[in-house]
Write a structure and sequence with these properties.
Layout: E1 2-6, H1 10-21, E2 25-29, H2 33-42, E3 45-46, H3 50-55, E4 59-62, H4 67-74, H5 80-83, E5 89-92, H6 98-110, E6 114-117, H7 124-129, E7 133-137, H8 140-154, E8 156-161, H9 163-193, H10 198-206, H11 213-223, H12 234-251, H13 256-272
Parallel strand pairs: 1-2, 1-4, 2-3, 4-5, 5-6, 7-8
Length: 284
Amino acid sequence: MKVGFIGLGKMGAGICSNIVKNGIDVVVYDINPANVQKFVDMGASSAATVKELAAQVEVCITCVPMPKDAKGVLLGPDGVFENLPEGGVHFDLSTLDIETVVMLEAEAAKRGKKYLVIPMGKGPAFAADGTCPLFGGGDKATYDKYEECLLKKMGKPAYIGDVKAGCALKLIQNLMGMSINAVCSESIKLAKLTNIPKEQFIEQISNSGAFSFQFKNTASGTFDEDFEHPVFTVNLAFKDVRLGIEMCESLGQRVPMMSRAREVFAATAEKYGEENFTATFKML
């Protein structure tokens, strides 16, 4: 099996490194040559274009920032779908909207290819160490075929349902996580205003019912007001929250608390878009 991987940013690089380390034949492409070279040094091969990559692999995987980027890579005469061999499979790690993934699945099917979503449930560190949840959505037989030989070498996959279900779970998870993160920032602001020592605050909250994954991973840096070394930028967080709220609106479902999170991240993105997503603290 030969696998192509497109998009070697912080999230994609972690997942791709797991595939390479498991001895799978991988060819990579990224718009940043330095990212490509890292994987060539690890033993992967490289392609000069998306078209060149797609033509030589059985499975293609993408991890790109925005829906427009996914469409740009997958569609058109030089895209993945036109050049992946007959019967080829595409797994999409990207955070996309439901309308886009449904359209991409249909476009792949027109060309005799399979398109599945496997968006990620945690951040770069978990992508890199092989413990990142992957929310599988799409054709079940295709998912089953690659679960053991590929997906479990990438992270912690679970089959959710069709592409809409896999995509929706990712959007819901993003809405929950970023909303909780914004609340954590407000709580830390209150702790600092009332002179609660950092170590005591983190320890006691960690032992209480208010503890969360977001608090565990961001409390120390937020308390220190370290936002200029982004693990995940405000701009990307806002994109994820925006897509989630757009899904809610399309369903006609009110989500007042999470809608407020969109407003918070939108305002933060205008001032601190390239800082860490915890920079919502700076708006308080």
